[in-house]
Amino acid sequence: MPNHLQDTVTLNNGVQMPWLGLGVFKAKEGDEVVQAVKSAIRHGYRSIDTASAYRNEEGVGQAVRSALEENNLQREEVFITSKVWNSEQGYETTLKSFDDSLKRLGLEYLDLFLVHWPVKGKYKETWRALEKVYAEGKVRAIGVSNFQIHHLEDLLSEAKVVPVVNQVEFHPYLTQKDLLRYCTDKGIQLEAWSPLGQGHLLEHETLLNIAAKYGKTVAQVILRWDLQLGVVTIPKSVREARILENADVFDFELSTEEILTIDGLNRNQRFGSDPDTNIPK
User: Fold this and answer.
1) What angle do CA 24, 29, 32 make, to 5 degrees?
2) 236: phi then psi, degrees, rounded to nearest 5
3) 3-class SS at 216?
4) Which residues are catalytic?
5) Is the CATH code 3.40.50.720 the one for domain 11-263?
6) Which of 136, 167, 193, 248 is deepest in the core (most CB within 10 A)?
7) Does 116 show up as a binding residue in the annotation?
8) Are 162 and 12 in contact (CB under 8 A)?
9) Residues that bind substrate, according to the entry (predicted)?
10) Phi/psi at 156 (nearest 5 deg)?
11) pLDDT tens-digit map of 57-95
């Protein structure tokens, strides 16, 4: 179990990935995302998650380069993730998308590159392109996002490389126990996007009671729950105070009973798109 913001999990190819990172979905390109990323790295974050669809890779790259210099860090000390968007999926188009992301970020390599959604009829060719850039050493690890068990089984039937990560919507209203168990059995690290349920959980009485016991916020309790379940988590914020708060989750531990209580809040409720019925265009 991680005890520090910079603690890492070992992925199935031996690469070390921080347990907690900063997500930058909806962070505006330019000063907003630059300041958020610089602030996170200054305060000890070592993982930043972006995507071509977020349209802020240039700002992320600028912030990372500045932060490395300002905090006397080496490039290998910060873990950078991006993703290929749905309209860019397919073999050749994914190769181009990867190169474009690298160019926008202004980096020589990526730490993790993901297939953003399981686009029917395309994700296997997309995965073949990811295997190519991985074999060429342009990215240290490759994975998927928003894949259900049946998508993973289909992909694994032909894949040469097992995904290291499956990044999915995951929070107390959507606990995805079967998917977590399946990924654990296959050596695929589950990673939570929207870990706080887009704010819908922050006033839940059960969570407020647990938070009060530890002198923590509901957000901190949920992020701690992620970590104790063995799930990597990437809460997003552009506010320095919230970025700091989200990282302050290593000085308390939820009991087994509290973990089960939070698990029991599950409603199978999504706030984002459903990978089976409405993949974003």
Assistant:
1) 70
2) -110, 145
3) coil
4) 54
5) no
6) 167
7) yes
8) yes
9) 116
10) -65, -20
11) 999 999 999 999 999 999 999 999 999 999 999 999 999
Q: What's the CA gap between 201 and 182, in Å, rounded?
A: 26
The DSSP secondary-structure symbol of 89 reads -
Q: 184 vs 152, 219, 256, CA distance in Å?
A: 13, 25, 19
DSSP 230: T
Q: Are 107 and 136 in contact (CB under 8 A)?
A: no
Amino acid identity at 23:
G
> Does residue 261 contact residue 52 with C-beta atoms inside 8 Å?
no
- Measured in degrees and rounded to the nearest 5, phi and psi for residue 226 equal -50, -55
> How many C-beta neighbours within 10 Å does residue 159 have?
17
Strands (E), the chain: 8-10, 16-18, 22-23, 47-49, 79-84, 112-115, 142-145, 165-169, 189-193, 232-233
Is the distance from CB of 164 to CB of 143 less than 8 angstroms? yes
What is the residue whose two structure tokens read 């968007």? 85
Question: Tokens 């992301």 label which residue?
Answer: 101
Render 135-177 in DSSP notation, one character per residue: HTTSBS-EEEES--HHHHHHHHTT-SS--SEEEEE-BTTB--H
List, for residues 131-174, the tens digit of each pLDDT value. Answer: 999 999 999 999 999 999 999 999 999 999 999 999 999 999 99
**Is 109 within 8 Å of 142 (Cβ atoms)?**
no
Of 200, 43, 104, which is closest to residue 80 (Cα–Cα)?
104
CA distances from 217 to 76, 87, 109 (A): 32, 38, 36
Element (H, E) at 220: helix 218-228
